[in-house]
What we know:
This protein is 37% helix and 24% strand. By secondary structure, it is an alpha/beta fold. The chain has one domain (8-149, 191-243): Rossmann fold (3-Layer(aba) Sandwich). α4 links the parallel β4 and β5 (136-147). The protein binds S-adenosylmethionine (SAM). One of its GO terms (biological process) is methylation. Keywords: Methyltransferase, Transferase.
Amino acid sequence: MSDRDDGAGEAWRKLAGAYERARAREDSLDRLVEWPAQRELLGDVTGRSVLDLGCGDGSKLASLVRDGAVNCVGVDISGKFAPDQPADLTLIQGDLSDPASIPEVAGRRFDRVLFLQSFGYARDPVATLRQARDLLTEDGFILLTRTQPIRYAIERTEQNGTRLGEEYFSGSPYTYRTGWNDQITLTKRTFTMSDLLNVIAAAGLWIETAVEPRLSEEAARRFPHKQAWMNTYLGIIMFRLRPVPGR
Length: 247
Ligand SMILES: C[S@@+](CC[C@H](N)C(=O)[O-])C[C@H]1O[C@@H](n2cnc3c(N)ncnc32)[C@H](O)[C@@H]1O
């Protein structure tokens, strides 16, 4: 699983503004489903240091700092960060694939390491996750959230007129126009759930909790088009990961 699209960095530099505008909409799934579920899995962050790999414009990390997190670092390839960040937050333009080589990260330990919808861009997923594990404090954990692999398989069945199993197991990369800016394509390596679980195991981590977040009943009533989308494409899956002792 080392077939990252090397155009992703360039694509994300162009996409960043449109992505953040879409995320800020009142009916965005990030706002309605993903961030609330991610925030709940993080729990109390008071006095905790957080490393956010693929942090976007840094606003989720800024919100954690406002909730009491300290000495936080965000890394994103786009380098398009929101202005007026709180103190105690360092944002760096860089590649999440090799976090231990980033000067502001090297030699440090963090209580929480986040990959929020960014892990798919790691060049070598096992190596990146191992590095993230080695950056944790003793009782630290990684929060890793990813698009459900079945979502991309369903989209490809719609494009190609194929069957779900054919696409889910196909293994070929998936290139698609993003919903945030239809001039820009992203290429994702496809993966199955067992691929992802095997990456986690190979990196010496165990799954403390897995969550597949859904719309609340109230949000589904207010935004039925989003419930319709979730009914077809499922959304994301989230893991709280801890080091297997001695590995
Ligand atoms: C779907 S967005 C998620 C952003 C943010 N974590 C969130 O939850 O809103 C993916 C992010 O990964 C970043 N990204 C893509 N490839 C990267 C890389 N190789 N290194 C660091 N960041 C990367 C993009 O610039 C983008 O901000």
